């Protein structure tokens, strides 16, 4: 039987090429051979201060972006997290299974709270527990994500294991499925930091958006930071070139050593021009499709509701089992008056 996969993405602004290479491309590939659940995690987006109107708009935009990248709502289940209330309910149960110490060790929490752990929202601290609920509800095996999510997937396994041993086997233990190339794309202006949505708000030249126009993509790639040498080579002492070669390799499907041979002696200018052409060729169809889809947001919302119906039907038996095994018992069924 094909393995079930689950992944999520926050509806917080425009996606970038790191999201595409590290995660979304694999979401698209996996839907051919697996039963795939892809979730726009609006509850997670509430862990940082938010504006209700912007959250709604970003949720619809994220759906358009995912479809434009090739997620197909006929072959996978695409839905919004808050449309299936079981996510929040299971999160509470798992919060009561999780320990302070294991959440305190989460690197993403440490990064986002930047040492201000007394003043940040509690949601940011329990974020990984909600993420565990997302995956465990669907009994998913594979979690296609970028490298930064590895620790969160390990936590889900730990919580699933603890729950299973305390209350009886209920959850499948999930695994992180992280790509071999491109699991961590770095910022174009600073190869020590990963490319990230939040940094792109203050430093637009740090990343390439999926729906950015060709002229702007080309300009950013041509002005990407490089070392003072001339050799197009990945490896020690060349973090900028390593990152650009990784992007090239991932989108063209050509191994890095082959690219090093192709661009031997050609200098950074010619290499960057070729990279810009390759990136534009990969992203241009996504941008055009995105714009077309955003022409009918009502249709996107209808598609998301259908996805939520399919997701809810799969989540319910897990939640029922959790309720029963933890002593909560069945949920009340409201009869129409
Ligand atoms: P986020 O942008 O944090 O919502 O992440 C959405 C997905 O993209 C997750 O699976 C991340 O692991 C992945 N991702 C985010 N940033 C990068 C990056 N710079 N390189 C590779 N994958 C990334
Ligand atoms: N935390 C993930 C991120 O920042 C998003 C996410 C939420 C997720 N729930 C998930 C990823 C479940 C995989 C599975 O990218």
What's a quick, concise take on this entry?
The chain is 55% helix and 7% strand.
CATH superfamily of the largest domain: HUPs
- Note the beta-strand portion: 5-15%
**Number of E-state strands:** 5
Give the strand line-up of the largest sheet: 1-2-3
**Cα radius of gyration in angstroms:** 21 Å
Tally of distinct domains = 2
Bound ligands, each once: adenosine monophosphate, tryptophan
Overall CATH architecture of the largest domain: 3-Layer(aba) Sandwich
Features:
Rossmann fold; 5 strands; 337 residues; 2 domains; Tyrosyl-Transfer RNA Synthetase; 3-stranded parallel β-sheet; 14 helices; two-stranded parallel ribbon
